[in-house]
Fold this sequence. Notes:
The chain has about 450 residues and is an alpha/beta fold. It folds into two domains: about 5-55 and about 325-440, Aspartate Aminotransferase, domain 1 (Alpha-Beta Complex); about 60-325, Aspartate Aminotransferase, domain 2. It is built from 13 helices and 16 strands. It has helices spanning about 5-10, 50, 60-70, 85-95, 110-125, 140-145, 180-200, 225-235, 290-295, 310-325, 330-350, 385-395, 420-440; strands at about 25-30, 35, 40-45, 100-105, 130, 160-165, 205-210, 240-245, 270, 285-290, 355-360, 360-370, 375, 400, 405, 410. The protein has a seven-stranded mixed sheet, sandwiched between helices. Strand 7, helix 8 and strand 8 (about 240-245) form a beta-alpha-beta unit. Helix 3 runs antiparallel to helix 10 (about 310-325). It starts with a helix and ends with a helix. The model has no long low-confidence stretch (mean pLDDT about 95). Bound molecules: pyridoxal-5'-phosphate. Pyridoxal-5'-phosphate binds near residues 50 and 113.
Amino acid sequence: MSQIKENSLKYNLYSWSAQGALNPDVITRAEGVFFWNEDGRKIYDISSQLVNLNLGHGHKKIIQAIKDQAEKIPFIGPGFAIDVRSEAARKIIEVAPDNMGKVFFANAGAEANENAIKMARMYSGKYKIFSSYRSYHGASYGAANLTGEPRRFPSEPGIPGFVKFIGPYPYRPPKGVCFATEEDASAYYLDLLEEQINFEGPQYIAAIFLESVVGSNGVLIPPQGYMAGVRALCDKYGILMVCDEVMSGWGRTGTWFAVDNFGVKPDIITFAKGSTCGYIPLGGVIISKEIAAYFDKNVMFCGLTYSGHPIGCAAACATIDAYRDENIFANVQKVGKVLGEILEGLKQKHACVGDVRYIGLFSVIELVKDKATKEPLVPYNQDPEKIMGKIVGQLYRGGFYTYSHENTIQVSPPLIITEAELRDAMGIMDQVLDDVDKMIQP
Ligand SMILES: Cc1ncc(COP(=O)(O)O)c(C=O)c1O
């Protein structure tokens, strides 16, 4: 075992894992859509690490901006005005929906959501917070309580007033329910949500949080009309609509924010990951002009030593410029179309592929034991034989890095990937799915 791995296993604690049986690969180089391990093996990064390296590894201009800022002013407290902090916020407001007014900077996605919860409560004077099952909003206490999947459980009993609703998952409708169209699905899930709003008392509900496109929990794309329907419910009952764009934002779906695809303007947007291409931690809360005006007169009880960290803000400025200057979203549209075709082909070909869902370069393959019954390859929150881990491991040995969640495999490459690279990488996926087909044969 190399010294690096030995030290790492001895001293580092790894996320979401029992520590005893880990075998992390040692990475020594990374560029574009690839990284290399210490044996010199070249690996496609098909999840953009944690769906944050939107512009891939080693983007020269972002790195230069970080270096320049480190030379100039690496840190100055959040109470001062400096060029990169104001410029980053200005650029963000420029690309956000036109009802947005100001930005509060945090360090990551969870922190952004923590602060959004507080802001929604302060602004509305109400305390209940709605979020959906099958969502992920971060691992800190408040964000974990927003989260609607098992990573929430160690943070429970939860914070009072947090309520979960059932969001759309048209591939798996409740028993006895069948959707003829996307609009039908939206109407069904919106009715459920409205009923729950009334059961909980709209006068107590501060905000509805939702991922504009659910990410880790299976790239669940809201059916036609759903987001507009949530907006309408929020307006009807005086509830704030908060879109978590931590994973879905910054071009992932081919637009600045995923919510732009649905023609809807939320009251608050949270972001992180792709805002700096993941090279330096940054997150934030974008609030509407109306909420910003409220905080002109009322104290905003939010603060962080590193709010608006100059190096993070410099990286954000360079990253936003790169999305625009390098015409990145056009590539997302073009290569995303190819990705959709490849995924549909895999679904046709492989018995184990129950569903594929894709928007831009944000996609997932959902694995089943049986296409007709849709029985998931592994039951919800259970994989005692580590089947999904084995599939991801086999992909990795083939030169294809990504991660799985429940019975889904994430396919969300850097937004700079070329068609040729994508086709080559997905060839590795095709071969591995052949083996999964054999595994599920009766
Ligand atoms: C939608 C969403 N929100 C919030 C988070 C939490 O972000 P972070 O890990 O930067 O705290 C994530 C992380 O994957 C996410 O996907």
